[in-house]
Amino acid sequence: xxxxxxxxxxxxxxxxxxxxxxxxxxxxxxxxxxxxxxxxxxxxxxxxxxxxxxxxxxxxxxxxxxxxxxxxxxxxxxxxxxxxxxxxxxxxxxxxxxxxxxxxxxxxxxxxxxxxxxxxxxxxxxxxxxxxxxxxxxxxxxxxxxxxxxxxxxxxxxxxxxxxxxxxxxxxxxxxxxxxxxxxxxxxxxxxxxxxxxxxxxxxxxxxxxxxxxxxxxxxxxxxxxxxxx
Length: 230
Description:
alpha+beta
């Protein structure tokens, strides 16, 4: 279980800022308390911003009074079970419901046998990626199902290159459906994305949405050999 760590070196900076007139923190203890609150608040925000803060506050007060309703071992056991079982299961169900709604409400969306949903916005040319070892040069934006952008080459202002055998399955399949110069939108089920082993910025069992412009296709070694034999 991840523990909450405080960057103690930041306390002096915060305390200095308080003395300069920013905020209502008037002592080193206040600054330390606020710094701990910031760290805890950031952690809670990343875990679940809808948590009842009154309950969190009550738990803190109970611990300080040695009247906690759960000891540390029981608390950690619940958190382990929540993050490894309950949260992934809940996310999987929500992702499936999200994709079903998208498919139902958009007549232009097509679906592959794997469950990948896609809409070809611009078809592009007849030049397409055909093999898993092909490399594509793209501009893209990735969103969670709530519309939050978690990655974007547009924000970085440059194209990106990926070998299709080095990306999530939904990309490997989806980028073969559009031609060079084209644009495609992908709704990727969790099992074709990161599944339960997702980075923290995404979370387990999340369906993902991508808009991708395909600028170039570079055949991989296996595809080049096939072309030489023709």
